[in-house]
Amino acid sequence: MPIHNICPDGDTTLTLTTTNPPTRLLVSSRHLITASSYYRALLTGPFREATTLRTHGHVQIALPDDNPTAMIAVMNAVHGRFFSVPGRKIKLELLNDIAVVVDKYELFESVSTMLSTWVATVRVGNPRASLRDVAKWLLCVSWAFNMSEAFRFATKELVLDTGVDVELEGTCVPLNVGARIMRRRAALIHTLRSRIQRFRDAEYRHSTVCGTYCDDLVLEKLDETLELLSRGPKSGVKPQIIRKMVHDLYEHRMDSHQVIQNCANRTWI
User: Fold this and answer.
1) Quick one: 103 and 143 in the same domain?
2) CB within 10 Å: which end of the chain, N or C, has fewer?
3) CA distance linking residue 180 with residue 207, whole number of Å
4) Can you count the helices (H) and strands (E) in the chain?
5) What residues have CB less than 8 Å from 169, skipping those under 6 apart?
6) Using CA atoms, how far apart are residues 85 and 76, in angstroms rounded to an integer?
């Protein structure tokens, strides 16, 4: 079984079983203990691994869930081997897996020097990646690396400008974050539906804006949108687009035929 000699004189072997054959990394317990409170507790506390290390001078640690490429990158950073750490144009998928490792083993400081380069040049490696996956990766990366502004932006975009479910299983982001995003989107959709219904009833049943044809066209679009919104978040509707439509119809309903036509022809999903 091949082994990655992160530290040739190391005393700790990390065995990642997510590959076949497993991936093995030879590392230094001293570096792990210094860099990570997780490993500090595991290798110096009242645990079997700590006892084995003290007794035999070497210990093997099984890691059944981690991405080997991400773990190799992080362990190289932990040991100061930055020439072996991925640099510019890192794939978002890999950065997500690195974020999971960093958060799980409390290793943020070890990779912090690489963070600005990664974030500045990150790209989605798989052009077929779904919006749901990209959103999940972005949330995980911004959460693990304490990027509060990026995290707020990502969550806002997920509420306003997407219609996908937010599934955070297997990420470092607490599951209740996804639930909160979905609740806020549902509340926004409910508010939009109420506003559109009031607008339809108050404005279009009792007044003429630019002629019967335009009014009928808009009424048809509003009815279609109300029906779509009645399904809630499962409809896949993008609240931001509908909100702009409502704004346009309220603020510019007398700006003639063109605004009405634009609103009536808009697609919400």
Assistant:
1) yes
2) N
3) 40
4) 12, 4
5) 175
6) 6
Residue pair 14/27 in contact (Cβ under 8 Å)? The answer is yes
Peptide bond preceding 174 in cis form (omega within 30 of 0): no
- List, for residues 70-96, the tens digit of each pLDDT value: 999 999 999 999 888 888 778 888 898
Does residue 168 belong to any structural domain of this protein?
A: no
Identify whether residues 22 and 107 lie together within a single domain.
yes
| Main-chain dihedrals φ then ψ at residue 187, nearest 5 degrees | -65, -40
Give, to the nearest 10 degrees, the angle between helix 212-229 and helix 175-199: 150
The verdict on residue 167 lying in a domain is: no
Range of the domain at 8: 3-160
Structural domain total, the chain: 2
Instruction: Give the residue from 63, 64, 29 showing the smallest Cα distance to 43.
Output: 29
CATH of the domain at 145: 3.30.710.10
At 235-267, the pLDDT tens digits run 566 666 666 666 665 555 444 444 444 554 555
* pLDDT 10s digits, 126-161: 666 666 777 778 888 888 888 888 888 878 877 777
**Domain assignment present for 16:** yes
147 and 25 co-located in one domain:
yes
- Tell whether 78 and 138 lie within a shared domain: yes
* 146/198 same-domain check: no
Strands of the chain (E only): list them.
Answer: 3-5, 12-16, 23-27, 59-63
